[in-house]
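Table S5 (text form). Sequence records supplied for joint modeling of the two-component complex.
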Amino acid sequence: MDYRFETPASVKTRLRDVDYLSDDAIAGVVFLADRLGKPILVEGPAGTGKTQLAKSVAEILGARLIRLQCYEGLDESKALYEWNYKKQLLRIQAERNSEGSWEDIEDDIFSDEFLLTRPLLEAIRATEPVVLLIDEVDRVEIETEALLLEVLSDYQVSIPELGTIGAQQIPMVFLTSNNTRELSEALKRRCLFLHIDYPTMDREKEIVLTKVPGITDNLADQIARIVRSIRQLELKKAPSVSETIDWARTLLLLGVDSITEEEAVETLNILLKYQSDIAKATKELSSDQTKKPGVVRT
Amino acid sequence: MTATSSDAGMLELLAGFITELRNAGLPVSLTENLDAMEAICHIPIEDRNAFKYALAATLVKNNAHWRAFETVFEVYFSLRGKQYSLSGDADVSVDDADDAMMNPETQGAGAGGGGGEALSPEQMAEMLFSALKNGDDALMRALARQAVTRFAGMEPGRPVGGTYYLYRTLRNLDLEGVLERLMEQAQQDSPSPLTSLEERLERDEYESRIDKLKKEIESDIRRRLVADRGVEAMAKTLRKPLPEDIDFMHANREELVGLRKAIYPLTRKLAVRLARKRRHGRKGPLDFRNTVRNSLSYGGVPVEPKFKYPRPAKPEIFVIADISGSVAAFARFTLQLVYAISNQFSRVRAFVFIDGLDEVTRYFEGVEDISAAIHRVNTEADVVWVDGHSDYGHAFEVFWENYGRDVGPKTTVLILGDARNNYHASQAWVVKEVQKKARHVYWLNPEPRAYWDTGDSIVSEYGTFTEGVYECRNLRQLEKFVEVLE
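The corresponding structure-token record, covering 784 residues in total, follows.
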């Protein structure tokens, strides 16, 4: 089988071409996932580009992205497949007056024609390249997780009436999790694990520069520094990368080219979403705090 | 892959590495082990970063374990990498430094004896200053090595973890003084006076560079210790409990910071779990009306019976916590945890005591920042009655007198403490009375079970009047207990 990527470095450059700035960890794990034919479990704080990674990989591979959004109560009829029972009923009714035996009908109504494929089966059966994204997998109950196991380890789906359907090709699979609960060992064992944290300052600056056209280097640098400073505070919800980008866009629209204290404080509500966090950051960023020499902050 | 001798060596090293990860508490399964072996076949071995991430992706499936992994990785693999890459290197000072470690006789006493370069301390401080100022990573690395050689005073064969050497090196470098100098310099260099925001950003930048330097020094010390004492001995010395296994009562400052970070994701998890538990998994009696209504769509056949889902009232929680020195950290974490998931309860009331008792609910009301409230509890609550030594008996009496009537059939009471009563009267009847009125009474004890009822601990005497005494020494046990609550 042909591999999709030659080296981790090539993953990085190709991702960069589609405006996704990865780091060594991300590129390395994507590379390995391809080589080992294993799914990637991506974890990390909200808004650090977990879902975007799957989209970007699909883009560079020219593959179709099949997305399964998880939620509480997801079951196999939504994730794997379902029999189109209405059509089956019609078929039986149409058959009522003809001579066909029950076996014929049974063979007939449990055939491909009556099968509704859901994302997981669709990804398995696809002949063209696909990337499967199972989003927010921590939202399904622990029992439902078992549904995924067969697909993730053997790339096959067993349908009692039809038998086992194997994959035409091994798709790239991404699972994302916001870590609202511990995933089962069985699931974790089958995946490569990738934790995407907030980016380093330099990487964040680059992200701002790529994602916000027309921004000056100086402003991007300042934004990245201020955001880093804010993330060091003990907050309920630290600003995410997407919020940084929103903030950069706002500042650009306001025609700011060098952020002053007032402008920073006035636009904080774009970065932070809790009143207590805003109050805390305002206090930290405004004058009297830092004037004292040797203030030790945590 | 053919099994050449170097491959065999690599496999052996990897096996040792994985054993050490398991010793450190990481759950590495056999399949993950095999995955790791397969993964590194695909990675160019000289690419250290890729090698590290390959191992991490296959072996570490929980971000909280990352630190432990990194430490073990450094011990097992970085020394090798460095030696190989340094053999052809012209960096004299480093080779000398390593030599000095190997042959203690050649190492002079005190500063300046170990390094090959004759830098005066002033010159070195100057170089450090400019390296930090310009963010020159290469120079910083070299200086870190130099500083360790000079100041750490490492002695071969001593079974220590390196914290002491780190402390000695850092004390000599006076990084705080350097930071102040850097800030002054930044003030002078800028054409107009720095605004406070700019000043803050500058300071952050320098602080992060200094952090980098500290890390560099730490790993340099570690490298030398590994060279001196061997991989396994070193890994054993450095083995630290995972955040969820840190003992509340004996956590040091650094571990406390780790705990605080670990508690936030935990509270989110618990809140989701408690909410789910309330919604699911209960079937009440048949809901006749609903069943009949539903049967209409099947022509009156009750195909799908409907049940009443009971909506249990959210419990009211009373936390009564001992906050005397020995168990203060535990009380703090439990309060923080309970308040963080307080929307799962109809009401939370908190009481703290040492030998007197005070209600501290007001500190938490309308406050979003729980840690600030906890801080106020520690500084403002009126909990000392006579001498500030724990007196459970008196504290319970005060509780019964002032708040006993508030305990009702919906109340769940949590009592936190080690029950070390300094031989005062136990007044266990209060707990008995509380148990009669309350829905549940639980006792959480941060001491190891083996210590219960030794010395002045009378936990069993109180425990007979509760539904259970739980050992809560770390987050893992605390998490387990919270699931019992309902």
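Note: The radius of gyration of chain A is 25 Å.
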